[in-house]
Amino acid sequence: MQIQRTYNPINLLIYAFLLVMLFFTMTPIIFMITASMMTKNQILRMPFNWIPESLNWINFKRAIVGLDENYIFLRNILNSLIVSVTVAITTVLLGSLTGYGLAKFRFRGRNAIFIMIMATMMIPFEAIMIPLYMVVMKLRIQNTYVGLILPFLVSAFGIFQMRQYLSTFPTEFLDAARVDGMSELGIYWRIVLPNAKPVIATLSILAFRSQWDNLLWPLLVSQRDKMKTIPQYITAFAAERNTDEGAMMAAALIASIPMFVLFMSLTKYFIGGSAVYESRKG
Amino acid sequence: MGTKRYKGIEKKQARWGIAFVVPALIFFSVFNFYPILNAFYTSFYDRRALSKLKPKFIGLANYVRLFDPARADNPLSFYNSLKATLTFTVGTFIPLLIISLLLAILISNLSSNRAKRFLQISYYTPAILSSVVAATIWMLIFDPRGLGNQWMNLILNTPGVDHKWKTDPMMLQISTMLVYFWKYIGYFVILFIIGLATIPSTIYEAATIDGANKNQTFWRITLPLLRPTVVLVSIMAMLQCLKTFSTQYMFYTNGSTRAPINVITFNIYITGIQDQYLGRASAMSVVLFVLMLVLTLFQFRTTKSGENIDY
């Protein structure tokens, strides 16, 4: 199935199609970057000029200063970072602990517990957000980090991945450590965790992304500006300043920087993360 | 003596295993099983948030109201939400599936590894942006003076026409589909590339020796062997689309009308949180849950049969 390097029309068509799709996926991102440095008139000009005539940093200032000039954007970035990093850490720690327990220990009801945990993957968050909202109201933890984080502490998918990965880990190593007198927690911390690095990387990226992108849950539990997250800020900013296109794009670009940095430094885990999903069918 | 001591170790081990598993078990009971049971329970009650009145048991009234044909005329009814969600799902996942499969096959057949990698990463890049950012960018593109009109008019050769991306009900639906398509295309391309890579090259060699041409190889070998991946990816895409929220919410807060993009999740949010009808919103949640459950079970069944393929 190798495509020969001849210039027959079908190959030209294929290259043209690949290029059109490349244009389609990349131009909106380039547009965001270019427009963040343009004035309003330059952004909505026909025809659009892809190279800004002058670099216009004022958009970034307006995006950061914010709607009420209280720099709440910075606080919202911090909130998103705290929530995303915490969820990434707990997903990895609790996921590996549970996955390790399910993969390497024998106890009654182990399979039943595993099936139960897998069954939660069939419960979409969107279907339980109303009851969860009621729980949060009852516990009076709306507008707190605890409220933002609590429903996402562990992921069934993370447990599944860890279990699959760790079940291939040689049990002899664990037994050798036991003979040497290492405690069970010590074995988990010093032998199991360091040997699960690829899954840890993939899972923490998945968890971080999903929280960085989460709009729905913060909309329910964070009403105070101080406790809002980035997606909420951008939504509000775009709604109230919808005539300030440059600042909108600047805010969007700033919000994307952490993801760009992660993506460029850990590309293989992003792409590998999709591979992990694929393995579900196995 | 020896076996007794071994038994003791085994028992101790079992206790550690249980200790490692219990925290997650408690978590899932409180934050997954309890809420879904609670959603079923609440869906039989007339319950409002911030109301001092005791929730009133009303049986199936919430469900009857959701599917009441008389309410179909109301553009914001659940009936129309279902329709908007299904339109969005079908209109998004079919193009997503076909084009990502096509791209994956074309990329896999490129001879240059560099070009392969470059295209994969470029197609994937939109997926790293958050949904809100993606919607913000496209909202500017869909501005009457924006790039959307400029491109469309260039393609259709209709200078100066406004295609009403954000105002015309049907165009609004297409716009949200386009944003979603853009964000997820690269993700599905990669899923298919991985699926293609699992087909052993010996099969292709055998086919070539037997004199099969490219067309025959594709329809007779690649596609049938890729079937499990296609089923898995399409159901995953459908499940994703059924849960869509951010894009629609973003368009709505920027002044688009709600009715054409009032997808189920959006309706749950408005009914339960904004209008405070928790019982009614719970009934909607249950419908969404059942819908997705059916699809997931279907996925399990089909992927199980897919495992039995012998190469």
Topology, element by element:
The complex is a heterodimer of chains A (282) and B (311).
Chain A: H1 9-35, H2 40-43, H3 58-65, H4 72-104, H5 110-119, H6 125-139, H7 145-149, H8 156-166, H9 171-179, H10 184-192, H11 197-212, H12 216-221, H13 230-240, H14 245-265, H15 267-278
Helix pairs in contact in A: 3-14, 4-8, 4-11, 9-10, 11-15, 13-14, 14-15
Chain B: H1 2-42, E1 45-46, E2 56-57, H2 61-66, H3 78-108, H4 113-124, H5 131-141, H6 147-156, H7 169-197, H8 201-209, H9 214-242, H10 246-253, H11 264-274, H12 278-306
Antiparallel strand pairs in B: 1-2
What this model shows, in words?
The complex is a heterodimer of chains A (282) and B (311). Chain A has 282 residues and is mainly α. Chain A has 15 helices and no strands. The longest helix of chain A is centred in the N-terminal third of the chain and has 33 residues. By secondary structure, chain B is mainly α. Chain B has a single domain, classed as Orthogonal Bundle (MetI-like fold), CATH 1.10.3720. Helices cover 73% and strands 1% of the residues of chain B. Chain B contains 12 helices and 2 strands; from the N terminus they run αββααααααααααα. In chain B, helix 11 runs antiparallel to helix 12. The longest helix of chain B is centred in the N-terminal third of the chain and has 41 residues. The C terminus of chain B is likely disordered.
Care to give the gist of this entry?
The complex is a heterodimer of chains A (282) and B (311). With 282 residues, chain A is mostly helical. Helix content of chain A is 70%, strand content 0%.
SSE ordering of chain B: HEEHHHHHHHHHHH
Query: Low-confidence runs of chain B (pLDDT<50, min 5 residues)?
Result: 306-311
* Fraction of residues in helix of chain B: over 70%
* β-strand number of chain A: 0
In total, the number of domains of chain B comes to 1
The global form of chain B is flat
* Span of the ends, CA to CA of chain B: 51 Å
Radius of gyration of chain A: 24 Å
Mean pLDDT reading of chain A: 89
Q: Rg of chain B to the nearest angstrom?
A: 25 Å
Overall CATH class of chain B: Mainly Alpha
β-sheet strand percentage of chain A: under 5%
Helix/strand order of chain A: HHHHHHHHHHHHHHH
CATH structural class of the domain at 66-240 in chain A = Mainly Alpha
Q: In what range is the share of β-strand residues of chain B?
A: under 5%
The CATH superfamily of the domain at 66-240 in chain A is identified as MetI-like
